[in-house]
């Protein structure tokens, strides 16, 4: 689950990480009042769940009321697009009004899980304010990755290593130590999946401040943090993803043409790899889960069919708790209710009542190809390329 920058900064502040003074505006009048509170010089930032706002014109240093009004008129209630949103746009309902900072240097700092060594990694770079992916590609030596034992947490030694890598003066150890420990506590206490500060700055008062912040959370752990759940902004999320989440279906919309319906996250990832290897691209990630009934299966298929980019629907099921005959009847319910001509279906069913499921689907008018394994799926997909 994603939250806005202003929400992220509020959390950082609660955990002892310094952030600039700021207020949030939901209309032009409030924005102007907040702007004047900062002596008519502030940074205005549109609040959307996407990076690249600055490059798209959504971040601006403003020093007069006329420019502040123009910024508000340009963005409030309008659609906003960055390189991260792709062909889609998101609506701007809030704008952050923040005190301007005099920047001496910019850095990058992040915390994320590293499954390979079962730790939380601290990622640091002296190249803040730029795309970290670009830095990793062109100057990998400027990125420092430090695994932290989840029992011991960050130590003074860790902080000194990061301090040296960021080329910060040793007198700043205390500040950086407080920031890193605060970020780590926030990460653990609130079940974060990512905390990213880009840039982390050193200002003209020799203070280290989080000038921007991005935090995402593990949705499976939200039941432990009701306060975090309340920060969700559904206006920033895909409508189909919201509806499927309410049904307990893991669905993420992508940009390809092959819709996927799979039970099990691992099988779903393998299925998406097969699609890519066949020269096509998945239109979604969808894990229907193991305990679905006909209605849930039908709604999963309907979610996939609602994507106008879908030209092929690939079903890859291993019947267990979810019997294949139950899944087949659910698919037919959705196909009957769909508008227009349903796309081609490629279906692999193994496990409980798989033969019955195939028989049910074979006795329909739909364009269906059956596969027994991933190789056959790949061959069928390749012929459709």
Walk me through the structure:
This protein is of the alpha+beta class and 385 residues long. It folds into three domains: 22-99, Dna Ligase, domain 1 (2-Layer Sandwich); 103-229, D-amino Acid Aminotransferase, Chain A, domain 1 (2-Layer Sandwich); 239-384, Rossmann fold, CATH 3.40.50.261. Helix content is 35%, strand content 25%. The protein has 13 helices and 18 strands. The strands form five sheets. Strands 7, 8, 9, 10, 11 and 12 form a six-stranded antiparallel beta sheet that branches. Strands 1-6-2-3 form a four-stranded antiparallel beta sheet, covered by helices on one side. Strand 10 and strand 11 form a beta hairpin. Helix 2 packs antiparallel against helix 3 (65-75), helix 5 (156-165) packs across helix 6 and helix 11 runs parallel beside helix 12. The longest helix is centred in the middle third of the chain and has 17 residues, at 173-189. The radius of gyration is 24 Å and the shape is globular. The two termini are 34 Å apart. 36% of the residues are buried. The model has no long low-confidence stretch (mean pLDDT 91).
């Amino acid at each position: 689950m994603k939250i806005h920058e202003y929400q992220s900064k509020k959390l950082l502040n609660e955990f002892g990480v310094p952030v600039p003074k700021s207020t949030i505006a939901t209309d032009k009048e409030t924005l102007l009042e907040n702007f004047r509170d900062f002596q008519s010089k502030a940074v205005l930032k549109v609040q959307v769940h996407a990076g690249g706002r600055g490059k798209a014109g959504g971040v601006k240093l403003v020093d007069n009321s006329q420019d502040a009004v123009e910024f508000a008129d340009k963005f409030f209630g309008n659609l906003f697009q960055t390189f991260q949103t792709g062909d889609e746009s998101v609506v701007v309902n809030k704008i952050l009004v923040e005190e301007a900072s005099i920047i001496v240097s910019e850095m990058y700092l992040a915390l994320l899980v590293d499954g390979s060594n079962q730790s939380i990694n601290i990622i640091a770079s002296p190249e803040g304010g730029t795309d970290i992916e670009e830095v990793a590609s062109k100057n990998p030596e400027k990125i420092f990755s430090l695994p932290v034992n989840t029992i011991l947490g960050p130590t003074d030694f860790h902080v000194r290593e990061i301090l040296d890598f960021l080329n910060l003066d040793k007198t700043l150890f205390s500040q950086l130590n407080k920031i890193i420990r605060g970020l780590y506590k926030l990460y653990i206490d609130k079940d974060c999946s990512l905390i990213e500060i880009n840039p982390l700055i050193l200002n003209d008062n020799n203070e280290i401040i989080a000038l921007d912040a991005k935090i995402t959370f593990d949705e499976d752990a939200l039941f432990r943090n009701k306060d975090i759940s309340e920060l969700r902004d559904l206006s920033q999320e895909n409508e189909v993803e919201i509806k499927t989440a309410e049904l307990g279906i893991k669905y993420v919309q992508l940009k390809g043409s092959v819709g996927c319906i799979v039970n099990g996250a691992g099988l779903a990832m393998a299925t998406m790899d097969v699609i890519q290897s066949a020269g096509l691209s998945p239109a979604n990630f969808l894990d229907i889960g193991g305990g679905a009934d006909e209605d849930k299966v039908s709604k999963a298929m309907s979610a996939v069919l609602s994507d106008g980019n879908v030209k092929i629907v690939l079903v890859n099921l291993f019947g267990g708790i979810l019997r294949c005959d139950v899944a087949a009847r659910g698919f037919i319910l959705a196909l009957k209710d769909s508008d227009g001509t349903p796309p081609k279906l490629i279906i692999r069913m193994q496990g409980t009542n798989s033969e019955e499921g195939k028989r049910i689907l074979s006795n329909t008018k739909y364009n269906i190809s059956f596969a027994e394994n991933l190789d056959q799926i790949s061959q069928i997909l390749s012929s459709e390329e």
